[in-house]
């Protein structure tokens, strides 16, 4: 497949975006993503790779008010999930974040859905200030937050590397995740697995 590389060396200006590893998106959660738990250990290894290099790690979280417009009760497409401050919105207890992690909360306003981690957040400003030129992205979900973050980030001028063994899709429609991957490659994102990160 186009967009595949054999190996990528970490360099200054790289950042890792750990996307929405929250209880509600994991098995047992209110919007559980099938096999979502399988990515956590691989992401932990990525986090170690980046921190060892002194590179920034950002953890994003879906952080909704209790009456968010995306919930069924408000006529939206999703069951209630990731309500700010609840256990469902907490990062998985299995995710090992460094003390230096930067946390970015998204979709925090009642009347606004935002799947991209750049939309309505300080993420772009934060990355620019840190001299970031390229983001590596993993987490949940392939077909919503990951896809939209890659799209926005590339539009903003960042290079994007998708860590394909660290993402899982909601797949509301079968193959949404596959289509999202094809779309990200079409946009110019590079796809690798964690073991292809060279230090
Ligand atoms: C997401 C579904 C609902 C995501 C957020 O961040 O991928 N997906 N809310
Ligand atoms: Zn949400």
UniProtKB/TrEMBL annotation:
Pathway connected to this protein: Cofactor biosynthesis; nicotinate biosynthesis; nicotinate from nicotinamide: step 1/1
GO BP annotations of the record are:
pyridine nucleotide biosynthetic process
Which InterPro entries has this protein been placed in? Isochorismatase-like_dom, Isochorismatase-like_sf, Isochorismatase_Nicotinamidase
The residue ranges of the Isochorismatase-like domain are 15-195
Instruction: Name the UniProt key words of this record, in alphabetical order.
Output: Hydrolase, Metal-binding, Pyridine nucleotide biosynthesis
Please tell me whether the keyword DNA repair is annotated for this protein.
no
List the GO molecular function terms.
Answer: metal ion binding; nicotinamidase activity
Q: Which Pfam families does this chain map to?
A: Isochorismatase (PF00857)
Q: What is its EC number?
A: 3.5.1.19
To which protein family does this belong? Belongs to the isochorismatase family.
**Protein name (Swiss-Prot/TrEMBL):** nicotinamidase
